Amino acid sequence: MPESPEALYARVTASGLNRTDVAAEATFPWQVVDGTLEPKPLAPPAAEPVARTGADGCPICASLPTERTIWENDDFFVSRMFRPSGLLILFLQTKQHIDFTELDDDLAAATGRWEVILCRIVERLPHVAQTYVIRFGSGAEHLHLWFVARPDGFPQIRGSLGLEYDEILPPIPEEVLGPDLHEIARELATHGGRARV
User: InterPro entries annotated for this entry (predicted)?
Assistant: First the structure.
């Protein structure tokens, strides 16, 4: 982020942190009992697996190409977060409707190559400490890897709980995010494909 740690802190201090309703989500693992934070009891096994969006009605397939796409080649595209975010979050996705474990060897090798390239590019941005690469896949049967830039200078924004700051921090202003996205797309295009921003 071209935003220094001091500038980010000043912006957050001025606007405040967002409250989220993450505690109301069924997957939130904690509850308060007698003033103490404790794990929620584990629910019994579900009779049916949680449904994922398949080829029929896949939101990723339906949105190709999208105004959120910053780069693409024949097999992949990189898009920005689908809503305003307090962290720089990108997605590497396949154009073909295919899930992670269904990749053939060539596409798997290409996926790994683009993962590393994208991480290198994001971590060269000023004030990015590290890039987390995450595969959830709980919602869609379509490969979409998350790339989350951890801002430099904030040790509390790290690890698995660091992603929670996506909604807690105020959204990154477009005048800060836009130049980052342009630079990432430009750098990706030096390795092939086309920048779209």
Answer: HIT-like_sf
DSSP bridge pairs for 106: none
Q: Which two tokens stand for residue 174?
A: 């477009």
pLDDT tens sequence across 27-74: 788 888 999 989 888 888 888 877 766 767 777 777 776 788 999 999
Three-state secondary structure readout of the chain: CCCCHHHHHHHHHHHCCCCCCHHHCCCCCEEEECCEEEECCCCCCCCCCCCCECCCCCHHHHCCCCCCEEEECCCEEEEECCCCCCCEEEEEEECCCCCHHHCCHHHHHHHHHHHHHHHHHHHCCCCEEEEEEECCCCCECCCEEEEEEEECCCCCCCCHHHHHHHHHCCCCCHHHHHHHHHHHHHHHHCCCCEECC
Q: What are the structural domains, with CATH classification, of the chain?
A: 5-46+58-195 (3.30.428.10)
Residue 134 CA to residue 145 CA, distance in Å, equals: 6
**Pairing, β 88-94 against β 76-80:** antiparallel
